[in-house]
Design a protein that fits this description.
Length: 534
């Protein structure tokens, strides 16, 4: 293996070989002290002192950004699949890897490429000093994680955190303090300020594009990849972080081409790289608040009043989590109560009792994910069972994990806590009886709604706010009231020519990653058709 690797990569990379996992960990520690970078870790599954998964788990503590691949014999494929969950494995390679040109190099090329893209930003040493019970600290961590920006976390009440605050001449009253690699301290930075500092584009380079895609979830990323790859000057505008809801999924099991599942973060990372490779511009932390029609131009307005124009627009703004209405929940959001952000909080709630509200797949996935670290996970569902709302495969997984309990016919009546969630009052929806339980962590997954108020009076929406397109428009394909053209709207076209809807924001959409990506691609095809005929 070392010989094959040296032959192809020896000129640009150092290939370090170790005889055992312990020796490899020693070598990694030495490299860390010397400030060297590690791009890829390749471990055999079968090793004498510890297996490859255990090794990768420990190596991750030293080099979290290194890409990870496991070498396995056919018989160990099951273990490799488990490793995908445990160590977020990027690949497993079946032995033998002959010929390397076919079986080894393409994998290593892709690992190196993704490492270069993700971990060579000038933010390697970004430090976040915060309090684990501060809502803004959690938001900043989530923002960085979802944008795949590596950072190191320091608790403000621990010695190293205190030292950093002192050095930054800051105190623990305004947290978090983010310290950039060149030593600049940002106190409670807003997402846009942070994005600018970590090298994420926030300003458009042009004022006119062929295509503006609004929303950076799977539909938007799909549209950006197809738009840019087919020669359209394309810009994607995302309010927070690319990936959308899918970016928050711990494991998407049903996306075509990933038989062992793929984490939302990995899928997003790949899609981003693919879109940028084709020349799409990706803007983050830009909130679109207006859409105007000026003759053939479509104007997209940002929250700061600035605007860009294009021939065509794809609306891919998806849906946002619905808020839990119970008293106390609002005040404790970010302070133990989280909407969907189970992934970034997983380490903080390790060893604790965790509650999850919701009966759909997103709640099930979060329960499975959190059960790895938490002492117990309780899923609260209003209905009598999960069967109506959750996929069969997830229910089976949940049933096999003893730490997860499902409480049916239960809802949250109130959340209590002073500065952090401490207790929940649960209500039995059959009897009305209540019970108070100790709880520090509550994750809410109770469905989602499109936030499309800013499209009022621009495009036709249904009574729940979803954007209606194509044959679903009133009057079907012949919908003509106010429609200026002598053709019916195309399939994903809204009530305004040249404005398309793709993914979850579209009325009657499938609410799946694959269909969102597919609609993104299809919308681009229709944009071409629209451009050809105007
Ligand atoms: C936890 C979880 C697990 C899931 N698991 C699966 C699964 O296993 N399989 C599956 O098929 N589906 C799964 N889904 C559903 C799937 O993720 C969605 O169907 C898919 O993400 C929809 O993609 P989208 O691009 O249409 O919208 P979204 O993913 O919702 O993305 C929309 C994006 O638009 C941005 N945006 C919104 N408004 C604006 C604005 N005004 N300006 C700028 N940007 C804006 C948002 O910030 C967001 O990033 C899961 C969903 C969740 C929440």
């Amino acid at each position: 293996m070392a010989r094959d690797l040296r032959r192809k990569y020896g000129e640009r990379h150092r290939i370090v070989r170790a005889e055992s996992a312990e020796a490899a960990l020693d070598a990694l520690r030495q490299m860390k002290l010397r400030g060297e970078q590690v791009a890829v870790l390749l471990a055999d599954y079968r090793m004498p002192e510890m297996n490859g998964i255990e090794f990768l788990e420990q190596a991750m503590d030293i080099y979290p950004g290194a890409r990870r691949a496991l070498l396995t014999a056919y018989a160990d494929t099951g273990a490799a699949i488990d490793a995908i969950n445990v160590v977020d494995l990027d690949y497993y390679l079946l032995k033998p890897w002959d010929p390397p040109e076919e079986k080894l190099y393409p994998v290593v090329d892709s690992l190196l490429e993704s490492w270069l893209a993700a971990d060579h930003r000038p933010v390697q040493e970004l430090k976040v000093v915060g309090h684990r019970w501060s809502a803004r600290s959690s938001e900043v961590r989530e923002f960085l994680a979802r944008n795949q920006v590596p950072y190191r976390w320091y608790a403000a009440d621990e010695p190293e955190g205190r030292r950093l605050l002192e050095a930054a001449e800051a105190d623990d009253l305004a947290l978090p303090v983010v310290i950039t690699p060149d030593g600049e301290a940002l106190v409670e930075p807003a997402d846009a300020e942070l994005a600018g500092k970590v090298g994420l584009a926030t300003t458009p380079s042009k004022d006119f594009y062929d295509l503006i895609v609004i929303g950076g979830g799977p539909a938007g990323l799909g549209a950006a990849v197809y738009g840019a790859s087919e020669g359209l000057r394309t810009v994607l505008v995302e309010r927070t972080a690319t990936g959308g809801q899918a970016g928050q999924s711990s494991r998407i099991e049903n996306y075509l081409g990933f038989p062992d599942g793929v984490s939302g973060a990995q899928l997003t990372d790949r899609a981003r790289r693919q879109a940028t490779k084709f020349g799409a511009e990706l803007l983050t932390t830009r909130d679109v608040t207006g859409l105007e029609v000026h003759g053939p131009a479509r104007t997209v307005r940002f929250s700061d009043g600035t605007a860009i124009d294009a021939h065509a627009v794809i609306l891919a703004t998806g849906v946002a989590y619905r808020q839990l209405a119970a008293p106390g929940v609002n005040d404790l959001t970010g302070l133990g109560v989280f909407y969907g952000s189970a992934l970034t909080e997983a380490t903080t709630c390790a060893g604790h009792d965790v509650y999850i509200v919701g009966g759909a797949n997103s709640a099930g996935q979060a329960a499975v994910y959190l059960s790895r670290g938490a002492r117990s996970v309780t899923i609260l569902v209003r209905g009598p069972s999960l069967r109506k709302s959750m996929s069969h495969y997830l229910i089976e997984q949940i049933e096999k994990i003893p730490r997860i309990t499902v409480r049916t016919c239960t809802e949250i009546a109130e959340a209590h806590g002073d500065g952090h969630l401490e207790r929940l009052t649960l209500r039995d929806s059959n009897t009305g009886g209540t019970e108070v339980v100790d709880a520090q962590w509550l994750f809410v997954f109770i469905g989602a709604a499109p936030l499309t108020g800013w499209l009022d009076g621009v495009v036709h929406r249904d009574n729940r706010g979803f954007v209606v397109a194509g044959p679903d428009l009133p009057g079907g394909g012949d919908w003509l009231a106010g429609w200026p053209l002598d053709r019916a709207p195309y399939h994903l076209e809204t009530s305004v020519p040249g404005i398309f809807a793709a993914g979850d924001v579209r009325a009657e959409s499938a609410k799946r990653v694959a269909s969102a990506v597919g609609e993104g691609a299809m919308a681009v095809m229709l944009v071409h058709r629209y451009l050809e005929r105007t």
